Amino acid sequence: MSSGGGNVARILYKELVGGDLRKLEAKSNDTPSGGGARDFRFRSYDDLLPVIEQMFPQKSQEPRTRNKQRVTIDVLKGWFYWQDKSTGKVTKKESTFEPPTSARKGEGRIARIHQYPCFDAGHVTIKQGNRILLLLVQLDDGSVWPYYAEESSIRTPGLWDPRVARELIDCIDAKRKEGTAVLGYKDFTNAKGFCNGK
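and the corresponding structure tokens:
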């Protein structure tokens, strides 16, 4: 796990499923009629909010439609950092986390993910028995670095910060309803966290 240096302060993670990869390729509409929001959705929004507010610390009032009415809501903003594959330079882009809509009351989201180069799926494939997690890592300097983590690499000693690996493995291995994707966070600065399997 390479980044701009510094210690891991907190992580937010979610398991990717097939639909998430189609979103990254901007192919998420599964029917010719269109649709298919290109975003990463995070259920259990209220449980995740403590870490979301740390990673996206600015609030911006933005116009949105809720219950067929035009309203102003607070959208959370921050920055994503990543190392450019071609130049090796650290790059950043403003990031936005949208609160739940009236139709999806428990889901926050990172919208238009195909427009963020840091989410380029490359050769990410979901294999039977090898989960892929989207991992947002916030360092103690406040920077947030997105990664994709294969379950097999998380379980390989020495490839990840051992505290991060232990948290992810514990949540992956927790019992949850069949078909429910892994989701959670850990704040290493205050030991608070959430795992949807516990």
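(Above: one complete record from the training split.) Residues 28-36 have pLDDT under 50 and may be disordered.
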